[in-house]
Description:
homodimer; 176 residues; mainly alpha; Arc Repressor Mutant, subunit A; 3-stranded antiparallel beta sheet; 3 strands; DNA-binding; DNA-binding (chains A, B); transcription (chains A, B)
Amino acid sequence: MTSRPRHPKLSDATPGGPAGHDIGSHDDEPPRLDLGQFLPYRLNSLADRISQALSRIYGERFGITIAEWRVLAWLSHREELTAKQIGEHTRMDKAKVSRAIQALEGRTLIRRTQSAQDQRVQYLHLTQQGEALLSELIPQARAWEDELLATLSSEEYRDLLATMAKLERQLTHLER
Amino acid sequence: MTSRPRHPKLSDATPGGPAGHDIGSHDDEPPRLDLGQFLPYRLNSLADRISQALSRIYGERFGITIAEWRVLAWLSHREELTAKQIGEHTRMDKAKVSRAIQALEGRTLIRRTQSAQDQRVQYLHLTQQGEALLSELIPQARAWEDELLATLSSEEYRDLLATMAKLERQLTHLER
DNA sequence: GGCAACTGGTTTCATTTGAAACTATATGTT
DNA sequence: AACATATAGTTTCAAATGAAACCAGTTGCC
């Protein structure tokens, strides 16, 4: 370890500090952490802001929670999913998925059918209403995304996705 | 609208699907959304995974919640912050900040001092214990971050931060 | 000085959350 | 066939959350 400045951190000028960070030698004064330079924090904060802004669209305009939106979106992408699968995709726990499904079914936006082979699983489908809602919601969500992305060039966007994919891979690597 | 494919979406090959998405013409069939290509979702999911992995470090090893960690980290970066300021930085609501502070004070990791000018505000400081904890925790957090970032080149890392900054700017722009 | 409007921080309360218990079905093992 | 083990999905329960009420102090205005 001890190897902090791997990535030059560009703005290594910690604004207005003795900048005597980077451990390594002996530490008499405690290490400081600039959260603005700490990727997990930055990323989280950005994602959070985006989520929140976006959830205003499907929350206020459509009365849909984030969990519900995710279920619907997955169903729009691929029909015949089970609660389990949705849970895996969205990384929401069983309970949350279950509740979202109940709520959506309550509003007849989705419908369930029992699997014939396995009585425990139930396949989920969009109803007409669900599809109708999505055909309003999805374009709006995309339009919003486009506005957000308008600030990026195609290359920047491409690179961003690629970098994120790398991080995801590394993450699964680290997780084990 | 209707202008989806602004950014060429590179891996347009949705793994194992008819890939017949991207609307554009007339829609008789409802639009489908591939969450895997939807930045808000991707970003959120990535940030979430990172947060969760990292929180294992300060959660399990140090018994610290995310909120508490954020408060501590900000205090490590700049002493003499108020609850208000921390709330602004971290975008956590008053209540959450207040609770984190209480918990941290309970464990004597931080200390408060009343402001002389304004009896309502109280400045927060790390205690010796708090500093001690951070001088263990911060290096570990950084080490973990380094492992995660090991997969990126310096340029990729730089670009990532730059792109994120752009998105953040755009977001504040859109928010108003 | 006194009154209204405001602000920093805490508390309350109803809602949301997630872990663990539970139900019902399925699979494997003897 | 009987029994243990596993799995899909639901429910329960205690803890975390956030909006709004609240308290204490401050500022502005007459």
